[in-house]
Every structure is written in structure tokens, then in C-alpha cells.
Amino acid sequence: MTEDWLKTYETNRATLERAHIYNPLEEHDACGVGLVASTDGTTRREVVELAIEALKNVWHRGAVDADGKTGDGAGLMLDIPQGFFREQVARTGHKAKKSLVAVGQIFLPRTDFAAQDAARTIVESELLKAGCYIYGWRQVPIDVSVIGEKAQATRPAIEQVMFRPPKSWYKGRSDDKLERELYIVRRRIEKRAIEAALPGFYVCSLSGRVIVYKGMFLAEQIDAFYPDLKDEGFISRAALYHQRYSTNTFPQWWLAHPFRVIAHNGEINTVRANINFMKNHEIKMASSAFGRRAEDVKPVIQKGSSDSAALDNVFELLIRAGRSVPLAKTLLVPEAYSKRADLMPESWRAFYEYCNAVMEPWDGPAALVGYDGRWVMAGLDRNGLRPLRYALSTDGILAVGSEIGTCPMEESRIIAKGAIKPGRLIAVDLDKGRFYDSDQIIDRLANAKPYGDWLNKAVELDDKLDTKPTPPQIDKDALWRRQNVLGRSLEELDMVLRPMAESGKEAVGSMGDDTPLAVLSDQYRPLSHFFRQKFSQVTNPPIDPLRETRVMGLKTRFRNLRNILAEGPDQTDKMYVLDSPVMTNAMMDNYLTMVGDNQLVLDCTFEAPNKGARPGLALGTLIKSLKKQAEKAVRAGVENIVLSDMEMSETRLPAPMILCIGAVHTHLIRQGLRSSCSLLVRSGECLDTHTFAVMIGAGATAINPWLTEQTLAVMCESGKLALAFETALAHYRKAVDAGLLKIISKAGISVISSYRGGNNFEALGLSRTLVDEYFPGMTSRISGIGLAGLESKIIQCHQQAWQAPTPALPIGGYYRKRYGAERHAYGAKMISTLQQAVRNGDYGLYKQFAEAVNTQAPIQIRDLLDFKPLGPAVPLAQVENVNEIRRRFLTQAMSLGALSPEAHGVLNIAMNRIGARSVSGEGGEDPARYTPLPSGDNANSEVKQIASGRFGVTAEYLNNCQEIEIKVAQGAKPGEGGQLPGFKVTEMIARLRHATPGVTLISPPPHHDIYSIEDLAQLIYDLKQINPDARVCVKLVASSGVGTIAAGVAKAKADSILIAGHNGGTGASPLTSLKHAGMPWELGLSEVHQILSLNGLRDQITLRTDGGLKTGRDIVIAAMLGAEEYGVGTLALVAMGCLMVRQCHSNTCPVGVCTQDEDLRARFGGTPEHVINLMSFIAEEVREILADLGATSLSQIIGRADLLSQVSRGATHLDDLDLNAVLTRIDTRPVKDTRSGRVEVPPSL
């Protein structure tokens, strides 16, 4: 591998970063991890040898580059063998017979010798300043022949600095002062290295106890690369090992684990919020351990750290401040206790509640092993989403690993073994030679301090505040006008609020979202509509909020948070706790009365600006004032900041509450004051659960939806809700709580305290400057409107509301198509035209349909794009024929169950006739279809889908297909599972799904055998074993970071990747998911194509996309963004007769497409010819476009984003959109056609 490769890679990566396509913080990894320890505390050569062997045995949990040698990273943490290093010191001419030898393992810039000298100077000067005696530097022996070309191209110089620390730092091995002092020295070194801008400099370890050997090689290469590890004198009491599987293929040596204290298999989903709150903890962070030198260790989390590295940074801080390794783990990654507190000892409950009071949990899949030279620990996250198993031998060897048998040990030696339970840990105190099992270590920690006495100072608010609500006296005229100002409609009250109040559940819809993106809409859209929910896929699972409720929680803490390095009763003094962040009007009123003067209410409304005033000035001035007032109050000791828009009136305009929250929260964080107060919100905007989630994600502590409560009171009073007001309000709160749990669970987060302030959304169409200022860390790839645009929309809405002669609410049209309201991609005339075209075989009518679609006002990003010619136009006869183009088409996954048997069968027959493919969906397939029909038609789905419920999946099912599709996520509801209502589970459906008729069938949000990228690799391997001919496709949903996930999927040996857009269809989904989760396929597809190209993986994978594809123009744009195959789902249903009445979830489809009702099924009139005509028409339109562009085949334009350009629409809010994230291209080579054959897997794993 030449330096040219490295230079090209870095140039292309920088290009993608500037275009906001690639974000290094979106990288993910998963791993094999474990430890070996001598429980009696003796040093042994066997510990090192067993750890090396165990590391080699988890090679399948790592990944390898195309060169066959460059791994994703592997490493070991061991004791510093004093005898070994005293020999190395002797070679420098010094003697260290009785002195402790401390060692720094350092990565230095290999090719920049001036930078090397500068780095050594910094290290030496800080060690000397601290009073250390330096023996000298040692070049670590390595064998570069065993590593790959990419690893060699990026390899640092690896050296050890050997020194003698002052004797005052250590009295014995267990004295923590030595490691604390060296921690401070290392942090000083790191800060100076950052100031000096030394590339490639990294301190792997600087310690008198432990040393880290790691790098970008395969697990089996570690002792070959580092011959030190083969030396018989290299002995240790304990060893951590780690093998990494990363979505990133660029070999960065410092990212290999172990870090300074831990090795981690998993993903911290809450890392953004954790980092934000850690910045605030730093302000109050004081410890006698550090004294005046506390500033030397700040910032605790180093800029650019991965989630694992950030966790290691905080872990190390707690340990150096005096916490033990087991206590640090329990503080940061606690057990879920609240739902079973009555089943555990009182001391345990008090201890867990204390941990919850001190720190926000670092939540997400985590198998952790840790070692500080005394304590060795292994533990899991609260969900147990990464496995750890252990074995204890007769001679005192503890082996912990990701799988059984990773550490070779005869069965006769094993006296105890087991699996570590979710949230729990095991530990060994090596100095005392004692092993603690799960119960013993928690019991030791829980009884170390009087946590129960300390918690008596905390106040549970629910009983104090939850008084019986009474219907308020309401000015209905003002209520309706305020509702108008905030964009409410009769439709929203009926379709969203009513189901919540009546049933305590969110409203359900179907058929996907065909309305414009918020930034493209002509109608007023609340700010919350510009935020898209984040969700987990592949690299970590979403949580099931219904069946895993034990680990979920909305418990909310109020008021000042204390010093995290202290341990005492002050940390819970006057701390208030509420079971949910949703507060009624009475609860908020009572709370504010209770705190008295310890509050500041900030008015979040502003006067209408004068005519001619600079756009955005009034709103911007208000935001500045809110920040200033909040800061002043908190500095004066106020602990409750209340943001309220209750003053909105005819003369006062409400600012977007999400903007106010983000501005104040972010400002207080930057000032180091956020942990000194609670941020309470009284908002009229809150109605649906998505808005609550965005506000909490932006930083709100608790929310009072005051206007919605008033609306419920009026609906109950008028009889529109046949419920008592108290009941309706209780149901509404229950629905919001359930919705919040569902939204945070999509992101793999279990507790609201770790979600708060994390900005776990992607902004779509908001100014990047605005996002960076008020929602830092949030991705905003399509930069759009800012304060001026938001202010303009508020003014327009306010004028319409207060100037209207009557205050009636508009009918609406956001959820269902209504004349004169929000635009929809599917209108009655379009549907009619298309159906006439396919029924009559009339291409001219189809062209009318396509013209209407292609020229309508913008709904999706692609509507802002136009083509550049490849060259002069060519005759249509020279363009590849319709048959070749149709073979690239699929009808996307729609199950037999969601669809009627008739509709499902027609799709299959049609696609098989033209050599295209249909996807079975997750409901299985009737075995009768495996045999051709008497007519010669084939009704079998050539692509069989596997979803999380595994319904209908058998060996026979998997062997009757050309391709197997693993559905990781669905575009219309990513992060959620599926549900087929019991009334759709007929005898036939039950037989196919191996279920009971009439019983609702639920697919959980995660695949319970895919918790990480290597688990997906295992499933792909298994499927290729059971069907040796089938290709394997993995279905992902477009989101920021999907490119890095796709890189991991490619390394897992998938053959195809499907990128689904947010507006794909579905048989049933909560409306908040339909409307607010996932991203357009244009963004996801472009990112995946470019990231795969960057990492040299594009030529081994086929890309596919779906989600609202309707015309040949859509197909051509998808091709230019990188897709080689195209899914057409909803449109195929329309061709068969679907009228888009959006009743799929109710079993009442009037045309028999999406129902199991026999009477309605009898109305189905679709035929294979209708679907064939549709596919042929689309293909013919593709041919015409290709001819105009000067291309003779789709292959010529695949990946050619340079042939797309942004077009002017004559509207500022559209023309100012930055579409660079879609239009960037880094690889000028043609895309290799990988649609035939498959990526083979090794004979065994």
C-alpha cells in the first residue's frame, strides 16, 4: 500500500466531512472482549498465555480488510512485569534492581521525525517536572511482516519511556497515589501535545502498574507483532483482551482497545447527553485526591473520543479520584432496579438510588472488563445486550469471555462457571486475593456507606403534587386562537389527541407519509417537524418498551446536581424526584408554589416586529434575553428556570419552545451552569409524543402541556370526549409516557435521564448555523431556514389566528388528504389516471401521471434536482431494452397477512413473468406456491424476508428463493417491530406463520439474535450455509451514519444492501413514527454509496433503494445516487386498485388489497397485467430519460451524482437549501455490476 493511497483516502474523507456526508462520531464498533486473572493475586506466565490464546479465539468477532491482514484492532492490558523491564533498563546502562520501573507505552508519528522529537521532549519534560527519573526510551520490537499494507501505511512508531517515579508516590502496590499522579502527568502531556498539534501522538498507557499492547492487526497476530509478549519473563496477575469489529475500515491505531482502564464491547447510545452533562459536572468537580490540580484533568473527555473512549475517560477519572473499579462501573452502567426494588435488600435499593442520583447512566449495549492494577472487573449493561461468561478454576484462574470456551481450560479444572446477569458484575481484589460473585460485590458496595440515610433527604414529588385536576375556567375564544397560532387543526385533535385521551395509547395509521418534508411545505409546520428521530440498527438493537419494561424508566430528577467526585449526604440533599417528566397544570402550579422564590419564569413570547425590521431580529433578541436572564438567575442561586409561552396573546407571539429550550440549555452548559438548575417548560406546543421527546432531547427537565390540558377540558365539557376530564387527562399522560418510552427505546436508550439533552435527532431543513448554536452535536446535512424563516412563519400564523373574524380551527390535512390543505403525493386524480393507464395498457395516460408527479410542487429532496447530460442525446433504439431495466425492479416486502392472499399472489406472478423479483414480507409463504401453477405462472416470492419475529421461517422457506432479505428496520417505523392484529390472523395466515388463529402476532423491535455487527455476520453466514445459492440482502433505513453501518454490513459478507426511505408504506404504525422517524432515501443512499467508495467496499456490494418511488425520473435519480436496484411497493398496490384510504390497519380495505375479510377480498380486481404494465411504463420512461441524457444504459449513470444539479424553484426557503450532501461524488470509477453471484463465506466461523 503506497503513501498515495493514504493521501487519496484522507482527501476524500475530508471532502465527505465538508459535505456533511461523513461524521467520524457516527462510527460504530462491536467486539470480542474478556479477561484472565489470578484470583489469589500471584503473577503467572499462564495468565498472559491464556489471554493471548483467548484473544485469538475471538477472531470471529473482529473484521479484516480486503488485504487479508489489516484488522480492526486488537489489544491487551497486562501488569508491568518488573523483572522484564528491569532487564530493559539495564540495557540502557542504568540499574533498577529494587526500584519500581514505570513505563509509558507511546505511539509517535512514524514519518515526521521533528514531531517525534517534539513529542519525546513533552513527555520527558512533564515526567521530570513531576520528579521522575528517566531511565531512557526503548523502541518496542515489532514484526511488520504480519500486518497488512493499510495497517503498515498508518502504523505509528511505537516506543516505551522507562522511568522511576518518586518514592513518595508509592508505599506498596495498592497505594493509589502512584497511578493518580501519573494520570495527572499524562493529562498534562496530552494537553501539550494537542497545543503542539502533533499528529499520530498517543499515550497508550503511562503507569507503574499496567501496560497496554495494541494495534491494527488481527487477533492471532498480536504476539507475532509484539515479540515481548512471547518472553517467559512477561508475567501478570491479570490481563484484559479485546478484538474489535468496526464499521470504519481506515486503520487508526489508537482506536484499538484496551484503553487506560477498560475494554468495551458495545455502544453507548446516550453518549451525546453524557458528554454534555460531563462538561457541567466538571465545574463542580472537586476532590482532595486532585486538590488544586483538578484543572489539569479537564476536559475529562478528550475531543473526538469514541463512545467507548469517552466512557473510559470518565471511568478513569472516578478511579483516580478514589472510587474502586466495581463502584465506578455501578455508577456509570448501573443495574435496572426500580421495577423490582421490592425484591432486593433495602441496602441494595438505597445504593442503586444513590448511584442514580449522582450520575446519568451511560446507557447502551455494554460488556465491560476493567483493571486498575488492583481490582479486575467484568460486567454488563442494564439490558444484558452483550454476553459475558466466566469460569473459575481449581488453581485460581478466572476466565471471562464473550463466549463459552474462549479461554482454553480443561473441564476438570473448572469449579464454577456461569453467565453474568444484566446490569451485574463480578470482581477480584487481587491485593487481597478474593473473588466476588455478583451478589457478593453488590453487597460489599451497598454496605460500604449509609446510602439509605443519605437518601432520606430526597423528596418524592408524585404524592405531593398529584392533586385531583379540576376543569379550569377557559376563555374559549382565546383558546381557539392560541391553537390556531400553534398550527392546531380539527384533524389533529380528532386523529391524535382523541385516541390518546380515550385509550391511553398513541394513534395508529398506515400507508406511510406522502406529505412534503417540513422545509418544503407551504403550510405552517411546528419546529418539531424539522427534527427526525434517531434509531438503532445493526450495531446495537432498539429496546422493546413493552416486553422489556423492567429496564425502562422515566424517573426525573429536579434541582441542583452535586459534585460527582464526592461521596456523602450532600449529593441527595433536597433532590426532588418525579416518576415522569410530564406534569399537569395542577402539578406544575403546586411545585412552583412549593419552591417559592427559588424560581425564575422566563416569558418565551415576543412582540410582533415593526414593518421593515430585519427578519429574525425580534426572535433573535428574545433568545439572547432568555439566555442572559437564565444565566444571571442560576449564578444567583436559582435552581428552577421555567420557560413559558402562557403569555401568548393578540400582541405577543410565541417563540418556538424547542428553540428556547435548546438555546437556554446549551448556553447554561457552555457556562458550566446546567447541572445547577432544572429547566421546566410550560408549553402550548406539546400535544403529540414526538414534540415532548424533542423538548426533552433539547434539554427540558419536565414539561407541562398547559394548552393541551385546556383543550381536553373543553372537549370533555362539549361532549366530544365521552369521558370525565380527570380520566381523559390521566389517559393522555399515560399515552405520552408510553410514547416517550417507545421513542427513547428506538434509539436503544432505556432511561429518560440519559436521553435528556442528548439531541438524539437529525435536523432536516434547518440552518446548520442555528443547529450548531442551539442543538450542538445534532446532524444537519440539508441546511435550510434559520431564525428569519422561523420568525416569518410565526408572524404569518399569528396574524391569521388573531385577525380571523371567528376563531374556528382549520379542518387539517396533514394526516389525510383534504382539499386546500397540506399537499400529498397521492391525489385522487393521480390515482385514477395511473389505474386507467395500467388497466388499458395506455402509456400515454401513464405519461400524464408521471408528468403530474414530476412537476408538482416539491415534496421530497429529489424534487429539487434536475439532470445534466452525459453527452449528446442518443436515439431511443440504442438504449437498453425494457426487459433489462425491469430486471432491476422489485416489489418491496409486503407480507401475506398485511396483504390479502390475492394481492400478494398477483404481485409475485407479475414480477416473475418479467424476470424481476417480489419480496415475501415477514409472514412466510404458502408451500403450494413453490410449485408452478398449471398455467405455467410462478406465484412464489423469489426474495424471502427474515424479520425479528421469524414468522413462517423454515428451511423449506429459505431454500425456495434466489435471495434472502434480513429486515433490520422498516422505513415507515424504524426502531419498531411489526404487529398483525388478531382479526387479520385467519386460519391460512396462522398456518403459514405457525401461530394460532385470531391471536395478534408481534415482531419485536430487535432481532434477538442480532445485538451487534458480528451477530449479523453470524446470521449471514448461517443463511448462506442453509441455502448455498441464495444471495443475502440486509435492509436498513436511511439516517445519518447509515453509511458507516453499511460498511460494517459489507464486511459481514452481505451481497446487497437496501436503503429504505422514511416515506415507505406500512400496514400499521404509530402516527408519530410514520411522520417523524427515518430520513429520505436520497440522503441515505448517497451516504452509503460514498462511504462504501471511500472504504474500498463499493465493488463488492449491490445497492438497492425504496420509499415512494413512482416514476422513471425517480429511478434515474436513485441510480445517479448509487442504486443499482429499485423497489416499487405502494405504487404497485395502487396499480392493483389501492385507493389510499389508509385503513390497512383496520382490516377494512374497500378494494380487497390489504384485508383478510373474505367479503372485501372478493372486491379485489387487480391482475398481473396491471403490475406488468406499471413496471414496463416506468422502464420505458427510464429509457427516454437515458436517451435524452446521452446514455445507453442505466449502468452508465449509476453513482454519477455529478450529473445532478439543484434547480431554482423561485422561493427563498427552497433555493437556499444546501443539497451538497446529495450532490458530492468522490469516486470517478464506474460502479462494478455485482448483481450476479454472491460474496462467499469461509467454510466455518
User: How many DSSP H or I helices?
Assistant: 41
Q: Major sheet: order of its strands?
A: 32-31-41-40-38-37-34-33
What fraction of residues sit in β-strands? 15-25%
- End-to-end separation in angstroms reads 28 Å
Average pLDDT figure:
92
Category from helices, strands and their pairing: alpha/beta
**At the fourth CATH level, what is the homologous superfamily of the largest domain?**
Aminohydrolase, N-terminal nucleophile (Ntn) domain
CATH class of the largest domain: Alpha Beta
Label the overall shape: globular
The CATH architecture assignment of the largest domain turns out to be: 4-Layer Sandwich
Number of domains: 3
Q: Number of DSSP strands?
A: 42
In angstroms, what is the radius of gyration?
31 Å
Low-confidence stretches: none
Query: Helicity range of the residues?
Result: 25-40%
Please outline the major beta sheet: 8 strands, parallel
CATH fold label of the largest domain: Glutamine Phosphoribosylpyrophosphate, subunit 1, domain 1
Describe this structure in words.
Strands 32-31-41-40-38-37-34-33 form an 8-stranded parallel beta sheet. The protein has a 7-stranded antiparallel beta sheet with strand order 7-2-8-1-13-12-14. It has a 5-stranded antiparallel beta sheet with strand order 9-10-11-15-16. The model has no long low-confidence stretch (mean pLDDT 92). The chain starts with a helix and ends in a 22-residue tail after the last helix. It has 1245 residues and is α/β, with parallel strands linked by helices. The chain contains 41 helices and 42 strands. Helix 19 packs parallel to helix 20 (689-698). The chain folds into 3 domains: 31-456, Glutamine Phosphoribosylpyrophosphate, subunit 1, domain 1 (4-Layer Sandwich), CATH 3.60.20; 474-503 and 519-802, TIM Barrel, CATH 3.20.20; 878-1223, Aldolase class I (TIM Barrel, Alpha-Beta Barrel).
